[in-house]
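Researcher: Next entry in the queue.
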Amino acid sequence: MAEHLKPGKETDEGRRKFVTGLLGLGFLSIFASIASLVKSIVPPKSAKSGYFPTVATGDVLVYAGGEKKNRPILAEELQVGDGFLAYPQGKGENQANLIIVARLHPEEFKPPTNLEWVVDGIVAYSALCTHLSCTVSWDKKPEEQASEIQCFCHNTVFDPRRGAKILAGPAPLPLPQLPLGVDDAGQLIAKGTFNGPVGPQA
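Model: Structure for this entry, 202 residues:
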């Protein structure tokens, strides 16, 4: 009787190995898919630190969301106290290009803000928090002078009037500033790239 059971045991063992192999391949495929998805979402890193933005001189800035999404930003339409997300036209697929733009009273700006990079009270910074790269938001307050940039992931607060200086929270560095200008059509444009590394900084 033992002779008759032996082939059956070998067959069962072969089936087990086959099923185990299939499961292993399945998990490997799932892991590869997740890794590919993460790679497509996370902005490309630079050789030094942070992420690699491609915003450059002459890029027209457009709205990143809302009813005006993808529409060029006209400097004259911005009201004091306004703040929103933007990116360079045609370069929105790279998250490292995400920008936060705000308009304040020109006299409110103090160093270390680069005042030459502010145009008509409009200032721009990277919209990626220097803590863990969450997207920051414009926290508009009833009192205009109290409005600020905030990362709601871990509650870092940045002062847009003083070079995005850290007022509270775990971020290690201020948000890098972007030089701004206005073209002949009245559109807000970049006059260069950010003055520091974008994204999380150790």
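Model: Strands lie at 61-63, 83-88, 99-103, 122-126, 137-139, 148-151, 156-159, 165-168, 180-182, 188-190.
Researcher: Noted, moving on.
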